[in-house]
Amino acid sequence: MQEQMISRAKALLQDGTVDRVLGWKIGEFKYDLTPAVFKSAEEIDSDFVYNTFSCANLSKYLIKETRKDGGKILIFVKPCDSYSLQQLIKEHRVNREKIYIIGIECFGKTDIEKVKDRGLSAICDITEDDTSITVETAYGEKEKIMKHEVMAERCLSCKSKKIVIFDELIGENGEVVEDCNRFDMVARLEAMTPDERFEFWQNELSRCIRCNACRNVCPACTCEKCVFDNDESGVAQKAAQTSFEESNFHIIRAFHVAGRCTDCGECTRVCPQHIPLHLLNRKFIKDANELYGEYQAGEDADSRYPMVDFTFDDCEPSVVYERGGDK
Question: Cα separation of 225 and 214, whole Å?
């Protein structure tokens, strides 16, 4: 697929349809792919990479890119990325007229942390085929691993193989996954006692170092200046000192994106402390679906999400209280 993407990107640059391309390139390590903007065919031939580690959701980078002078920018979107992009367009954060969208079929991405958890360190090379990766280390070790064994969690519980917005496709477009298991862990948390649930989140959030990676990568976090960057707030760029502060940042952020989160999983992917932050967002999504009816952020270009779409059929506060109990 990489060859097709490179060929198409170069063609669109050459005929003037776009004047730059948003894609991925190798970062510090071969498995560390990072978003990048390519402005020439030479740059694409030299640096453009698409493989099992092209996990990053590129949609948020268009907020700034579409404000720049110049022509259109080409973006490649996986199915989960396309939901984020459509939501950003719906919220008028991205200018649709300044982007050319190529949807790319996706079969899941590899979680490098799962690879490392197999005892592999000092990884110096990784190659792949359709079903497996081969890892080589600086110690002379070489191991072949099936992709499904080290697939990212968000891919194991993928909500949709459907690309919801595009100008053209590479590969086949899929369908919404009706029986995905993405709410299973949320249900397990709901089944806990309040004390057990508090202990779970206290343990997870106590590792937070307030690096802001989750906020910075989140396509739903698009404020020009975050409230947590307000120097007069007392919490700007500040590591948590109490258990309240540990929870405060993440709970407020979850409320901030409620109804707009597409469940792309980027928050958890970039967390250096491996906190399952996506579970907070999934809890809100699950609750909204049960209280207000099924809704998927980014699924279409017109619908209003439940938090801003009052109807006379909305549930009353008493319904929420009775349903929630001690949850």
Answer: 15
The bridge status of strand 20-26 relative to strand 123-128 is unpaired
> What residue type is 137 in one-letter code?
T
Nearest alpha carbon to residue 322 among 282, 281, 290: 290
CA–CA separation, 47 and 275 (whole Å): 31
- In this structure, are residues 274 and 309 in contact, taking their beta carbons and an 8 Å threshold? no
CA distances from 198 to 163, 192, 244 (A): 37, 9, 12
Residue 69 and residue 172: Cα distance in Å, rounded?
A: 33
CA dihedral sign, ordered 115, 116, 119, 122: positive
Q: Which residue has the tokens 């402005």?
A: 39
Whether 50 and 26 have beta carbons less than 8 Å apart is answered as: no
The DSSP secondary structure of 72-131, one letter per residue, reads -EEEEE-HHHHHHHHHHHHTTSS-GGGEEEEEE-----B-HHHHHTTT--SEEEEEE-SS
pLDDT, one tens digit for every residue, the chain (327 residues):
899 999 999 999 999 999 999 999 999 888 999 999 999 999 999 999 999 999 999 999 999 999 999 999 999 999 999 999 999 999 999 999 999 999 999 999 999 999 999 999 899 999 999 999 999 999 999 999 999 999 999 999 999 999 999 999 999 999 999 888 999 999 999 999 999 999 999 999 989 888 899 999 999 999 888 888 877 766 666 666 666 666 788 988 999 999 999 999 999 999 999 999 999 999 999 999 988 888 999 999 998 888 888 777 777 766 655 555 544
CB contact set of 35 (below 8 Å; sequence gap of 6+): 22, 23, 24, 56, 58, 61
The model's pTM? 0.90
Instruction: Give the whole-angstrom CA distance, residue 45 versus residue 11.
Output: 12
The CA distance from 286 to 308, in Å, is 17
* Two tokens, residue 3: 């060859």
Percent of residues in the chain assigned helix, strand, coil, to nearest 5: 40, 15, 45
